[in-house]
Amino acid sequence: MVFLFYLLSAVMVISGLFVVFSRSPINSVLSLIVCFIAMAGHYILLNSQFLAVVHLIVYTGAIMVLFLFVIMLLNLNRATIPQKTSMTRVAAVVAGGLFFLVMVAATRLTFEIHPRYPFSSKIGLVSEVGKALFHEFLLPFEVSSVLFISAMIGAMIFGKKDKESLPQPPPKEGA
Amino acid sequence: MDWILFLYKFVFLIVIFLITLVVAMYSTYGERKVAAFMQDRRGPNRAGPFGLLQPLADGVKMFMKEEIIPTTANRMLFILGPSIAMTTAMLTGVVIPWGGTITIGGREFSMQIADLNIGILYVFAMVSIGVYGIMIGGWASNNKYALLGSIRAASQMISYELAMGMSIIALILTTGSLSLHDIVEQQQGWHWNIIYQPIGFLVFIICALAETNRAPFDLPECETELIGGYHTEYSSMKLGFYLFAEYINMFISSAVMATLYFGGYNVPLIDQLGLSQNTVTLLGSLFFFIKILVLIFVFMWIRWTLPRFRYDQLMNLGWKKLMPLAIFNILATGTYYYFTAFN
Amino acid sequence: MQTLTNRSKVVSNKKMTFGEWIYLPAIFKGMSITLKHFFKKKATINYPEEQREFSPVYRGQHVLKRDEQGRERCTACGLCAVACPAEAITMLAAERKPGEEHLYREEKYAAKYEINMLRCIFCGDCEEACPKEAIFLTDRIVEAKYQRKPFVYGKDILVEPVDADKRIDVTKRQTQNVLKFKQNKRFAHNR
Q1: Cystine design at B36: which of A2, B43, B210, C21 (Cβ 3.0–4.6 Å)?
Q2: Are B137 and A145 in contact (CB under 8 A)?
Q3: Residue pLDDT, tens place only, B143-166
């Protein structure tokens, strides 16, 4: 089990590095997929099969497909990525470092984990997750679903074209 | 570590893989025969008696053909594509209960490789990963038609996965479990889920056709528009892997349908015959395979009857018809159980 | 508008009824039709084992006939080559030497006679043009080959064997009318 943990961690770290350092966006996305699959493996090691599978379905199977989809459609090549000057690179490194510092400062106290409940090996199983969602966190769960619905409706309104802005059909002959 | 169990699982896994491959092989033969019979022809009948060696001949042909990788293709991803398609297709068979329990030497062995308590979701996860095989292959070919095919495949799979998931939710409401083994055990006798979930089954079978890229939803590979779609640039056994993965997917989705809606390995009234446990199990497995083969026949039957959908019709059907139907089904099922469970 | 058959239907864009809108009845109807065809008698045959009956005047591979004494009838007049619309026939004439009377019927014979079976359209004009009743089309089928070269048939393939039991039978195409036509032709040619 410990061996599996280290193997999955290594896969995750290496593929994560690939995501950042890979030059072609497609390879980045593919390494991110590998990273996600390794993460699902971690969930299984924690005995939360439900979370693992949902992670695979939602993130690996749907969201990353959309990522890949967009990248394929845009057909990003090396030529289309604007070259950055060394000045912007330095600025990016400084900004990133500062952001990292702020994050460390903000989360410093939470590094020591104080679990609210004693760890139960059943916590990730489907029945436990369901009970937690529909008893304890019923209201936030439902509110978040309303949020998603509103996001969907918003996207639909954006996607819908105005009747006026559509090109008018050419007048019929003889009319 | 329990070595006997480990050995049993290992052998059983290999047997299931072999059966999957053989069934997939012979479904290519079956498809050609069914197509021929429905068009008043005879079909392949030259290789061996009734042409039964045709799949072998096809396999040899696939291996002997010249292997072409286009110079502008992305070499690594070009090879990765069919491998992913094949692997994910094979992996799904792991959670399907192929039979009851069998007793060998006083020990009970389950005829299922892994009884996950989230079996159905595992199938979904594998199906949703399977689309990468098509997407990566289509993109790596560096060909417009292949790219169009793979984009169609991705959008089609995502669209129909939603309706499929919705139809499954209604089924889970009736069974109360995500484990395929439990779902089968609940369908003892004639309590097949199709009786309780006819609308759900209808949605599921339509979505299964779309997920396996079978006609009338074979837009990702339609010859008339995309000259083969995502596998336009593929040749030799890499093409064979794509085609083979499609047949494996068909076999697995038939097995899933037989498990979920047609009682899996349950044989009605077999308990009254007074047979021994092992005989019942083996008969059940046989019956299960017969169900699967019938469903595969239905898949082929539909393919050689219905013409292909247009792309906008496909999306309309998925989002505007199947989704509302599946949601209505969930509502109806939920309402029914709400009122019966509290009486 | 007048229609060729009475089966054509006028397309209408009327609103579909609910039964039509859900499509399922139409799909099941279609599937029942294909299932019916599944059990129907096959329209095709197992070709090399079973063969369909040929018409008596089927035009297949040519034969160069010999006469009753086993002499070649062809006199290399070249009328068949002239008549051929596909220009598939070539020949080389030669004079009969003394002592070859048992081989060739006339004084002149075809030393080389070739038909390119890839060019031939099996129209039968050569047979009609022949004044000596030498060339006939038969109900044999030209074999498929992998190369182009073997399709140029020479005398070794075209001329029928001498043995009486191995002769190619063309009596089916020689009806009374044909015989009369050929006879007239021979007289006209010899005149």
Answers
A1: B43
A2: no
A3: 888 888 888 888 888 888 888 888
| Contact at CB, B122 and A53, closer than 8 angstroms | yes
User: Which residues, including other chains, have CB under 8 Å from residue B230's CB and lie 6 or more apart?
Assistant: B134, B135, B137, B138, B141, B146, B149, B150, B153, B220, B221, B242
Testing the interface with B: which of C28, C38, C39 to mutate, by most B Cβ within 10 A? C38
Show which residues on chain B lie within 8 Å of chain C, measured between beta carbons.
Answer: 34, 37-42, 45, 301-302, 304-306
Are C188 and C131 within 8 A, CB to CB?
Answer: yes
DSSP H or E run through C97: none
Residue C135 inside a domain? The answer is yes
C177 shares contact with chain B (CB less than 8 Å) = no
Answer yes or no: do C35 and B45 touch at CB < 8 A: no
Distance in Å, alpha carbon of A1 to nearest chain B alpha carbon: 13
Which residues from B are below 8 Å from C42, CB to CB? Answer: 37, 40-42
Name the residue among A49, A62, A72 with its Cβ closest to that of B117.
Answer: A49
pLDDT, mean over chain B? 84
Instruction: Please write the tens of the pLDDT for every residue from A47-92.
Output: 888 888 888 888 888 888 888 888 877 765 555 556 677 888 889 8
A57: chain B residues, CB-CB within 8 Å:
121, 124-125, 128
The Cα-based distances of B155 to B88, B128, C143 in angstroms read 19, 11, 51
Q: Do A61 and B161 touch (CB under 8 A)?
A: yes
Looking up residue C154, the CATH number of its domain turns out to be 3.30.70.3270
Tell me whether chains A and B touch (3+ CB pairs under 8 A): yes
Helix-strand-coil split of chain A, %, nearest 5: 70, 0, 30
Report angle CA B273, B275, B278 to the nearest 5 degrees.
145
**Cα B293 to Cα B295: distance, rounded to the nearest angstrom:** 5
Nearest CA in chain B to A75: B139
Q: Which two tokens stand for residue C29?
A: 């109807």
Domain-located, residue C16 = no
Expressed as residue numbers, the domain containing C117 is 62-190
- The answer to whether C36 faces chain B, any CB pair under 8 Å, is no
Query: What's the structural domain count of chain C?
Result: 1
- What pLDDT digit, counting tens, does each position of B264-281 carry? 787 777 677 777 777 878
Cβ-Cβ contacts under 8 Å for A27 (sequence gap 6 or more): A18
Q: Is C139 contained in some domain?
A: yes
* CB within 8 Å: B45 and C46: yes
Domain membership of residue C3 (yes or no) is no
What is the pTM (predicted TM-score) of this model? 0.79
User: How far, in Å, CA of C78 to CA of C84, rounded?
Assistant: 10
Query: If you measure CA to CA, which chain A residue comes closest to B138?
Result: A72
DSSP C103-161: TBSSSEEEEEEEEETTT-----HHHHH-SSS-EEE-SPPPPP-SSSGGGEE-HHHHBPP
